[in-house]
């Protein structure tokens, strides 16, 4: 329907209509008042806009705060233990026939002095040698500032348990390079002298003795020195990386090129074990595997290597470009295989053993007998967990 023409349908003012009195075309004496009313309307509109923006901003802040409380908070944890839900498994009362030979690396930031000391006292010291033959390192980047460098120097002097990457800025986007360096450290001894290279985050607490006993019980047939195996809590992805950023690059934001291919499982980065056989294969690749991947893709990178060993030598596997780094239209590509042969890997998604603490993160659960690696704990909570009556006997000595 079209709008009416002429006077038909127009708004007709009443004789006493205030708008008629204030119409500048009908009353010249009202211009001052009209100006003030227009000014009032403008100010009112501005106030409404500012109020709406303020309320929108406030809502966003409250929403972010609520999400942070759910996923990232360090508020005290309550009702998180489930030891009383089941009887203690018998296998946890017995040392394995042969100890688990573990090369452990802990991803840490330079400033986490207290956290590293907590991990030494609660998780690392006092592990039974009948359970685990343990070698470990904290992996940190370059310290910046005189005070930080001095503290790192004396910490390293006191404990001799730090792998310091002096050519690496200690920022999130270089975490993938830390993970690669961790595997390089694990691989400095022959692969037949240890079982697994293991990497954990600094807010993860692992019952290493229970881990060794549980692996022998749950997976008695695995042979990590002869087989390709990865054990972790898993997610999935489909990106495959290609080595395009050289080592020694100083730009923290540069990232290896990637394409998409078949879906695969990848470890959530807070804790994962890679068999010594797989570790050796990863480090044997020439050129080196892509390891310049921006956070939070650093754990996806691990899974992409494992999947690449299986798929990249298969000419029938379809890989394609992605719009994030290649203008449309997308097309099929043929990435260079990581290694000159196909290798399949046993992927173990250990949901019961590896999880976030209840109330924090997307993979949370209550801590029970099977919980061998628990993520998102504060230093104080690590101490409380370590001193639990149910598990304190898993270490030779109490916390120092």
Please provide a brief summary of the model:
Residues 1-27 are annotated as: Disordered. This protein has helices at residues 18-21, 31-71, 113-124, 146-159, 175-186, 208-218, 276-284, 298-311, 379-386, and strands at residues 100-107, 132-142, 162-169, 196-201, 204-206, 229-242, 257-275, 319-320, 332-333, 346-349, 354-357, 364-365, 373-375.
Task: Tell me about this structure.
It contains nine helices and 13 strands. With 400 residues, it is α/β, with parallel strands linked by helices. The protein is globular, with a radius of gyration of 30 Å. Strands 3-2-1-4-7-6-10 form a seven-stranded mixed beta sheet, sandwiched between helices. Helix 4 links the parallel strand 2 and strand 3. The chain is 31% helix and 22% strand. Helix 3 packs parallel to helix 9.
Please supply descriptive tags for the structure shown above.
400 residues; alpha/beta; seven-stranded mixed β-sheet; four-stranded mixed β-sheet; globular; disordered N terminus
Please state how the strands of the largest beta sheet are arranged side by side.
Answer: 3-2-1-4-7-6-10
Strand content: 15-25%
Terminus-to-terminus distance: 85 Å
Number of helices: 9
**Could you tell me the radius of gyration in angstroms?**
30 Å
**Shape assignment:** globular
State the oligomer.
Answer: single chain
**What's the overall average pLDDT, rounded?**
87
Give the low-confidence spans. Answer: 1-37, 66-73
Question: Main β-sheet: number of strands, strand sense, barrel status?
Answer: 7 strands, mixed
Structural class by SSE content: alpha/beta
Q: Count the E strands.
A: 13
Q: H/E element string?
A: HHEHEHEHEEHEEHHEEEEEEH
**Helix proportion:** 25-40%
Pfam family, one: Galactosyl_T
Subcellular location: Golgi apparatus membrane
Main location: Golgi
EC number: 2.4.1.-
